[in-house]
């Protein structure tokens, strides 16, 4: 649990750094009285999508590097560089929009390791019946990051030091450096290397992983590979052909893409939507934009607990649990998001309610596709998540550009079209996942081989 809480804080900082621009751009550009930068809508769209240009290229390789060198090193190093880039972001923005684009792309590159590396970590730390809970706690930090950074940004834009909005980046950068210290001191790659858990806890984790593999495989080396937990003297030969031709893998990736499209659309565009259509002032905008993510944070954790209970009590099978989480999460997100686009100027309370239900319910997806990578291929969960994140980065890149293109005037009708497109993607992705995804370890996993590494070479 201490590792999940440490991961929680790390993901919180990652999301705060990532999402800070979505809000701070409202007070950075000259669309407001105090804006200092002259960036038209098209440039703003490019700036918001630049993060995902770099985010795309580190996904697959980071999962592999985490398996090879350990998730502790990969996560710690990536946060260190991300923090330094965040600290120099105000200078870059004031100097040149192109320099700022480059900084955001590099930030995305280093933060791209977060989810694949954490999934690699949980593949040897999380007992199967606690996966939804532990990964839910870990990744829920992202939503707390969104919750905190929005009102914080609103306050700092108006009252912050160094000219207002630059103080957002300075505070987040130093916060990331502090987390790096805690991570390198307390974290460990495997239970066998951790001095802060008891022998009983270590045995429970290792035996639970072992039992799951015994039920799904007759290959002793498969058990040994997950029980590698105390050794780093080998690496995996990744079965690329089996991965690329696996229907359940692609079903999970498509569900992943749909979920990320909805998430990226909201995190990059929610402040713009509320500012364009309802004209909230910066201070109110920060607090109102945070409300949906409080619900999101709660649903991730509650959903993880409920789904684990449904599985452990054998009320639902693994795949039935994943399907339920996806249908409730993304289905409700689509419905309430579309409804929010039809709220009028005098219905501010109603739009906040709809957006809270939309974003809040979508948190259930973390008990769906996110955990499903661990269900179908625990040994390659980091690599598979890296592939899924790589393809889903297309969503992160396209969403801000699509919004900039479809909402040149920021009218309600323009935003309605944006939300209908998003709703359609959410529903289609959920249907494909529900039909084709699986909840058991795939047979092709037995074909992989272990390659010994000579440390003296």
UniProtKB/TrEMBL annotation:
Protein name per UniProt: MFS domain-containing protein
Gene3D superfamilies xref list: MFS general substrate transporter like domains
Source superkingdom: Eukaryota
Membrane-topology descriptor: Multi-pass membrane protein
Gene Ontology process terms (BP): monoatomic anion transport
This protein's GO CC annotations: membrane
Record GO terms (molecular function): symporter activity
Coiled-coil residue windows: none
The Major facilitator superfamily (MFS) profile domain, residue ranges: 1-441
Main location: membrane
PANTHER family: FI19708P1-RELATED (PTHR11662:SF399), SOLUTE CARRIER FAMILY 17 (PTHR11662)
Family annotation (InterPro entries): MFS (IPR011701), MFS_dom (IPR020846), MFS_Na/Anion_cotransporter (IPR050382), MFS_trans_sf (IPR036259)
Keyword line: Membrane, Signal, Symport, Transmembrane, Transmembrane helix, Transport
Annotated localization: Membrane
Keyword Signal attributed: yes
Keyword Transmembrane annotated: yes
Cleavable signal peptide: 1-16
Transmembrane segments annotated in the record for this chain: 46-66, 73-92, 98-125, 167-186, 238-258, 278-303, 324-344, 350-371, 383-405, 417-437
One Pfam assignment: MFS_1
């Amino acid at each position: 649990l201490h590792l999940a809480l440490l991961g929680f804080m790390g993901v919180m900082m990652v999301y705060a750094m990532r999402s800070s621009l979505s809000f701070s751009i409202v007070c950075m550009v000259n669309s407001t009285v105090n804006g200092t930068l002259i960036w038209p809508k098209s440039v703003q769209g490019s700036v918001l999508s630049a993060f995902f240009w770099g985010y795309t290229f580190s996904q697959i390789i980071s999962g592999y590097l985490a398996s090879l060198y350990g998730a502790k090193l990969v996560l710690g190093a990536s946060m260190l560089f991300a923090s330094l880039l965040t600290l120099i972001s105000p200078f870059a923005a004031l100097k040149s929009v192109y320099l700022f684009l480059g900084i955001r792309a590099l930030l995305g590159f280093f933060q791209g390791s977060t989810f694949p590396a954490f999934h690699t970590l949980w593949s040897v730390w999380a007992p199967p019946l606690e996966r939804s809970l532990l990964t839910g706690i870990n990744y829920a930090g992202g939503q707390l990051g969104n919750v905190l950074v929005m009102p914080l940004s609103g306050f700092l834009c108006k009252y912050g030091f160094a000219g207002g909005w630059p103080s957002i980046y300075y505070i987040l950068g130093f916060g990331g450096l502090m987390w790096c210290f805690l991570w390198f001191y307390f974290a460990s790659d495997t239970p066998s290397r951790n001095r802060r858990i008891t022998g009983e806890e270590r045995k429970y984790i290792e035996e639970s992983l072992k039992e799951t593999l015994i039920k799904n495989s007759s290959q002793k080396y498969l058990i040994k590979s997950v029980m590698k937990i105390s050794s780093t003297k080998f690496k995996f030969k990744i079965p690329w052909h089996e991965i690329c031709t696996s229907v359940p893998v692609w079903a999970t990736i498509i569900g992943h893409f749909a979920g990320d499209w909805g998430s990226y659309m909201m995190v990059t565009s929610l402040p713009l939507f509320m500012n364009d259509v309802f004209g909230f002032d910066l201070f109110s905008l920060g607090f109102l934009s945070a409300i949906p993510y409080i619900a999101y944070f709660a649903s991730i954790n509650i959903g993880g607990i409920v789904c684990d209970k449904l599985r452990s009590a054998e009320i639902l099978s693994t795949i039935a649990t994943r399907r339920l989480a996806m249908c409730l999460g993304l289905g409700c997100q689509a419905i309430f998001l579309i409804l929010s686009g039809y709220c009028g100027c005098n219905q501010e309370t109603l739009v906040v309610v709809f957006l809270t239900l939309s974003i809040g319910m979508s948190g259930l997806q973390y008990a769906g596709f996110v955990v499903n990578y661990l269900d179908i291929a625990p040994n390659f969960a980091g690599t598979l998540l890296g592939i899924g994140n790589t393809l889903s980065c297309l969503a992160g890149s396209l969403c801000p550009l699509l919004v900039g293109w479809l909402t040149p005037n920021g009218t309600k009708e323009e935003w309605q079209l944006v939300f209908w497109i998003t709703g359609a993607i959410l529903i289609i992705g959920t249907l494909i996942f529900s039909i084709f995804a699986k909840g058991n370890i795939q047979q092709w996993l037995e074909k992989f081989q272990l390659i010994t590494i000579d440390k003296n070479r």
